[in-house]
Design brief:
By secondary structure, the chain is of the alpha+beta class. The protein contains ten helices and nine strands.
Length: about 290
Amino acid sequence: MKVTESDNLKHRQLRNEGYLQRVSAEQKEYAEVCESPKMTETDSTNTNQQREGLLEQILSRDNLNRAYKQVKRNKGAGGIDGMQVDELLPFLKGNKNELVQSLQDGKYRPKPVRRVEIPKENGKTRKLGIPTVVDRLIQQAICQVLTPIFEEQFSDNSFGFRPKRSAHDALRRCQTNITEGYKYVVDMDLEKYFDTVNQSKLIQMLSETIKDGRVISLIHKFLRAGVMIGGIFEDSPKGVPQGGPLSPLLGNIMLNECDHELERRGHRFVRYADDRAPRRRRDATEQVA
């Protein structure tokens, strides 16, 4: 955790530009393996209706078609079965009915994710879990239905992996906080956040909103699908594997409670994924440069 005093505007702008360059570099690294899902707001889900029929919404023809197009646009590497994105459509033409039926019956079993590590600027690596393209399709279909529901609950101070929000928007909010007199910045990063998420707590939080137990069960199966590392299977009793369409949404859901607690305590903060920048107001006698 670092505490730094805000400098002059020019210095802040240079730091902002450097941050955005790092964000762009990281996004490029992700794209080489599995591009992050591009969530968009949609009116296809009525968030006021009963949640018991969520699985039917997820498996509807229109939603699955949208999910396929998104997976196709994202491209990305294949999972442990070797199937590539351009092979997904032929597979669906021959197996869609069986796939949908297995999901409706609760018999579908996601495959373990493929472990990939990409280098970070600090010399460490970020662990990604690449699902098969079929599993990515299903995750995307789930995400498209759940995103509008949870968007109603998310904090206005959260910017990462949300519709119509970006790192630029987060930086603009930081700038607004500075101009309103908040002088000190506490830069926090939740170390190995996605690797250490408590799955039981996450499922409990999902269950408070999602009343269709079949959807909860399916998400739980994705969490417990395991990881293949060098041909060896490893169980996944904790964490949310980064690399699939569901992980950003689940990460935001898990941190939403913390966001609202910070707001309840009167803190100004900006969160982008697992990075936070709370701010403290200047003393009455101090002047902001």
